[in-house]
Amino acid sequence: MRKLLASLAITVGAVGVAHADLQADADAAAGKEKAQACAACHGQEGISPSGAFPNLAGQQASYLAKQIMDIRDGDREVAQMAGQVDNYSDQDAWDVAVYFADLDPALGQADADEALVERGRELYRAGDMSKGVPACAACHTPTGEGIGSAVYPALSGQHPDYTLSTLQDFASGARNNDPANMMGDIASKLSDSDMEAVANYVLGLH
């Protein structure tokens, strides 16, 4: 656990310097034009009509830019995104990312099941030391807004179906494009019910 937390701190510092200049030069207006093709899956205002696709509105620009470039470069496989960003330059990725980051994020309402909410709250705010699982809030903040300087995504208001499938992909190794495979290590220690609880909790987190 200490080794994992130490790696988190190192990543925050190193990544923040690398992304600051790129984000400062990004053009949200150019990104809006480029993002028109994204609306079919992610919604006109960055809020997806389907739980199969993530909400992008209000997401950390650094995280979105990284995901776009990872998909473009083959470091992250997303079948639905095949060919969509192949011709994007790094500048295009940052322009689109800043455009979505500037939109108002989704506000969701978690399932009110008391046990589900309590387990989700426990994992998000305190983790589970018996499993070696750190608190989600350590990287994603208590309000779920993420940390842009460390490329840690916002989770607040995200579709539970998408959050759950993402955790499952990290746990199985189908997705491994996070620094030092931190999410793979964490997700692999969560049970299916734990993943469902976290996914439900972050939907209503804001």
UniProtKB/TrEMBL annotation:
<dbReference type="Pfam" id="PF13442">
    <property type="entry name" value="Cytochrome_CBB3"/>
</dbReference>
<dbReference type="InterPro" id="IPR024167">
    <property type="entry name" value="Cytochrome_c4-like"/>
</dbReference>
<dbReference type="InterPro" id="IPR009056">
    <property type="entry name" value="Cyt_c-like_dom"/>
</dbReference>
<keyword id="KW-0479">Metal-binding</keyword>
<feature type="domain" description="Cytochrome c">
    <location>
        <begin position="115"/>
        <end position="206"/>
    </location>
</feature>
<keyword id="KW-0813">Transport</keyword>
<dbReference type="InterPro" id="IPR050597">
    <property type="entry name" value="Cytochrome_c_Oxidase_Subunit"/>
</dbReference>
<keyword id="KW-0249">Electron transport</keyword>
<keyword id="KW-0349">Heme</keyword>
<protein>
    <submittedName>
        <fullName>C-type cytochrome</fullName>
    </submittedName>
</protein>
<keyword id="KW-0574">Periplasm</keyword>
<feature type="signal peptide">
    <location>
        <begin position="1"/>
        <end position="20"/>
    </location>
</feature>
<keyword id="KW-0732">Signal</keyword>
<feature type="domain" description="Cytochrome c">
    <location>
        <begin position="26"/>
        <end position="104"/>
    </location>
</feature>
<dbReference type="Pfam" id="PF00034">
    <property type="entry name" value="Cytochrom_C"/>
</dbReference>
<keyword id="KW-0408">Iron</keyword>
<dbReference type="InterPro" id="IPR008168">
    <property type="entry name" value="Cyt_C_IC"/>
</dbReference>
<dbReference type="InterPro" id="IPR036909">
    <property type="entry name" value="Cyt_c-like_dom_sf"/>
</dbReference>
